[in-house]
Specification:
By secondary structure, the chain is mainly α. It has three helices and four strands; from the N terminus they run H-H-E-E-H-E-E. Helices cover 43% and strands 7% of the residues.
């Protein structure tokens, strides 16, 4: 099992997690290098290799919504509103706009998980 060194006490949780993160990054880079070859491969419908079903997904168009002036205006307004709400949440005082609107202090939807970051030498 991958975490055997941790489970046996040979490595600390941080050492084990760091090693797994290094492997994850290495695999990601390797997959990026071969991706072009893989997508050019002939993949027959129903292809199965070593018990793994392989299928092709066609790429699709991603629209550039920012070409639309109305979209850009709304996006800007939304970003400005988020800033006001963030400020109101962090402040001990009410935030009041120039036109007298009191910005509400909204509830917390959720919290992100604590994490550890690793930076590997290249």
């Amino acid at each position: 099992m991958l975490i055997e060194p941790f489970e046996s006490g040979e490595k600390t949780a941080i050492e084990m997690d760091m090693q797994l993160k290094f492997v994850e990054e290495t695999v990601k880079q390797a997959r990026e290098k071969i991706n072009g070859f893989v997508t050019q491969s002939n993949i027959d419908k129903g292809l199965e290799i070593e018990g793994c079903k392989v299928s092709r997904r066609e790429g699709y168009a991603q629209l550039n919504y920012e070409d639309d002036k109305t979209y850009l205006q709304l996006k800007t307004l939304l970003a400005e509103r988020k800033e006001l709400i963030d400020s109101a949440f962090k402040s001990n005082h009410n935030i009041v706009t120039d036109d007298g609107e009191i910005i509400p202090k909204v509830s917390v939807k959720s919290y992100t998980k604590d994490s550890v970051s690793y930076t590997f030498k290249k």
